[in-house]
Amino acid sequence: MSLMKLGLVRGLIGEVVGALAGVFVVMLIRAATGYESAYSAEPCWVIGLLSGSIGFLIGVGALTDWSKWWVGQETPMHHGPPVGQPAWTRYFGVDYNHKVIGIQYGVTGFIMLMIGGGFALLFRTELARSGLQFLQPATYNTVMSMHGWAALFSILIGVGGMANYIVPLMLGAEDMAFPRLNAFAYWINVPAIISLLASTYYGWDGGWTVYPPLSLRGGAGYQFVFIAIFLLGFSSILGSLNIIATIIRMRPPGMSLFRMPIFCWAVMATSFLQLTATQFIAQAFLMLSVSRALGMGFFDPAKGGDPILFQHLFWFYSHPAVYVFVLPGLGIISEILPVFCRKPLFGYRWVALSSVGIALVGFIVWGHHMFTSGYAPYLRVWFMISTLLVAVPTGVKFFSWLGTMWGGKLTFPTPMLFVLGAISVFLLGGLSGPVLATVASDQPLQDSYFVLGHFHATIFGGFVFPFFAAIYYWYPKITGRMYNETMGKIHFWIMTPAFWVMSLGQMTAGTMGMRRRIADYEQGLAGFVNPHLGTIEVIHMAITLSAFVIAFGILLMIYNLFHSAEMGKVAGSNPWRSRSPEWQIPSPIPEHSYARPITVVGEPYDYGLPGSYVTMAGAAAGDD
Amino acid sequence: MPKSSTHPRHFIIVGVLVAIVTLVLYVVLERALPMPAQASLEALTIDWLFGLHMLVLSFLFALVVVFMVYSIVVFRRREGDDTDGEHIEGSTSIEIAWTVIPLILVVIFAFIGFKTLNDITRQDPNSVVIKAHAQQWQWQFEYEGGVISDTLVVPLQHRVHIELDSKDVIHSFFVSEFRVKQDAVPGMVTHVDFTPIMSTEEYLAIADRKGEEMKVRCAELCGLSHWSMMAPVRVVPENEFTAWLHREMVKVNPALTKADLSKTSN
After folding, report:
1. Shortest Cα distance from B14 to chain A (angstroms)?
2. Could you say which DSSP state residue A103 is in?
3. Chain B interface, mutation test: which of A518, A605, A612, A613, most B Cβ atoms within 10 Å?
4. Residue A385, min C-alpha distance to chain B (Å)
């Protein structure tokens, strides 16, 4: 089989050709208009990356069907792997099946998680001891900044994976509403990732927040990052549009909104956030990009601009984005918990609406990231109150989970362990929030390691743990085989305590006065030794060791997933005895998921009652 | 153990456990999350608020975790039991309760948050005004009479008003012992107020200081040497401060007389 048959390979060639063409055109224009040197990294690569990305999309084939439509050609939907090629090749090219795209998203998200984590391990090794060891400040700044965006890519893409794979299955739908758009929304992530990773060559030092005027100076790497996020934003907007259309239009008969599986509620709330907020960061980054490229002064006070304006635009997206990161994960918790408690989800409607509540409140709290920025001081009171309000719908979720567990018959296979771990970790993240919401107590902690501890707990509790729970939970559905339970449990039991040490360690360092994003710290930071925990160096060492333990746990998981795909026990169609529709069809799921259309006849989580949630057309009642 | 999950005995046991765990957690957190020395009035207010947060945090954490662990232990599935749990779909009155009670807590904390914010941002017309100029990667402090210093010298027990500006990128004025932080933004002047209550001498006398004095540290990523952008802080009694300022003023402008000085000084 020729490599050229793989869409990904053709796409990469397209990327290179497109990029070189773009660079060449800019050099031609520069030479023609009398610049001293035709090549200048920044203008050449801004155009080169854009044309390279278009080249990728053409090469991979994400635009093929649409361009055929343009000239009036019909393109029948192709099902199954590409003709005459092995089944695995479909994962490396454009495929319209949502299950394939879901896996593509999921695996890409996982790879980005490892890359983002790898960057973290690099600078954590440097920070284990006081003093500059092997990362010089310039490299440290780039690595630290890359950790931020690589990890956020991983989350956004991972969320896309869960939503794409699971939502159509839960709705009993054949596919997403717009399969071609779905494939396009996935594939545009790849040039985005290439652009992001390429930024390390020139370097950039702004952290993931890239506040100007700092981001208007410094390396050409910034432009790579702006373009990467601009492309990723396309994926978010198009993907969420698709999800909303799918949930609204493709539910089976009988599935009213309040009879949807709860994960669909979470994903719908998330999608509305992505659809309406992503434009703001795209615009903010576009403004930065043209400020650098064309000398415009949106954020430069010397040219009449305002640096704080950027922060407003940035956080108007990036705060809702935090809820984009965690809402699907919280949906996974609500989804999996009833299965392993053998009890209905406590207060289904309240849990469903709390997602919507969090999403709505999420739009009016952005200013809490800027308490010390110097904007109108009285506004801080408003943002403090709105931020504290987030606790109310979040509290509803926690208490409803407790209500679900209470009086159940709990079992603890790996997915359930990760769900319980997620609840405990997200609790730590959530409860450390109000300290940062009240302006006075935020003042010493803003931009400190306390904030790091807080949001790593929210992100691990709201995304990483539920993501892992989801992988273990749906693994038998995806592969038809069971993962290795013992290894899964070992993964949980080494990763969870390590995470607790890391997160609490960060919070401790923060209260001691450790600033975030510094390449080195003085040994006697804050001039004192914590009598109970030791010096700041001891705490940093603990954080670094925990990071490595977490990484080891994740490697174990990868081994488990690969190993069990061939060696695992055959799982059967419904190993968890779930009521959800996707568990009523064979594992692995056939190309056309549902041979017969489904009808919803009951409640999704009525464990403890006879009767089922869905019936399949043609099957006698009680057949399943 | 009682069969029904709504039997009062469950809730009595959980209630007692929540109380115990709350106390233990609070004590542990106090030790695990230490703040640096309290060198300003603001530190007292902020640490009090932080402590209050820790108390509520301990309680809520204990509440959720005890209920969770209790369920894990008591409501786990017994060997050979394949039946489902009790069929309870929810309870509107309980849901309303756990919506309204946190809402009340939010209102209380919003009020406390507002009061403490007012407290730490209190303006005093008699404040010593110091201009702090930030630039990559150093601090400079400007006093009345054009006195420029690389060390932030502030008077003990006297309100200080810092006016911040920046020459290049965003920096942040952060002294952890004072618990103050304020960004310095190019193109505008921001400000922050505090009242030092611990002199450098007292500060250094506390054990484990290793001779390190308080420092202004930049808390907003500002490029290559952000990590090392610091300036020493010296807190001195008011008369010493005035004497120092007068000496420096005369250095800038030797023509100043004693009478001029007593007019301009605080």
Report:
1. 12
2. H
3. A518
4. 6
Of the two residues A219 and A169, the one the predictor is more confident about is: A169
> Is A42 in CB contact (< 8 Å) with chain B?
no
Residue B1 pLDDT greater than 70, yes or no: no
Query: Does residue A435 belong to the interface with chain B, where contact is any CB pair within 8 Å?
Result: yes
What ipTM did this prediction achieve? 0.94
Answer whether residue B263 shows pLDDT above 80: no
pLDDT digits (tens, 9 = 90+) for A112-145: 999 999 999 999 999 998 888 888 999 999 999 9
**More confidently predicted of A525 and A417:** A417
Domain assignment of residue B43, given as a range: 8-75+91-120
Domains held by chain B: number: 2
Output DSSP code: residue B209: -
Local confidence band at A1 (pLDDT 50, 70, 90 cut-offs): low
DSSP A22-46: HHHHHHHHHHHTT-S-S--HHHHHH
Number of Cβ within a 10 Å radius of residue A313: 22
- Residues B132, B112 share a domain: no
Residue A368 tokens, joined: 């809490």
Does residue B168 belong to any structural domain of this protein?
A: yes
Q: How far is B242 from chain A (nearest CA, A)?
A: 27
- Is the CB of B83 less than 8 angstroms away from the CB of A342? yes
* Residues of chain A neighbouring B80 (CB-CB closer than 8 A): none
CA distance A487 to A489: 5
What CATH number did the domain enclosing B161 receive? 2.60.40.420
Burial of residue B154 (CB within 10 Å: 0-12, 13-18, 19+) is buried
* Residue B116 shares a structural domain with residue B160: no
Domains of chain A and any CATH numbers: 95-616 (1.20.210.10)
Longest dimension (CA), chain A: 81
What's the pLDDT score for residue A133? 87
Helices within A446-484 (DSSP H only)? 449-459, 465-479
Same domain for B221 and B115: no
Residues B112 and B139 placed together within one structural domain of the fold: no
Residue B84 included in any domain? no
Return the structure tokens found at A22. 């773009």
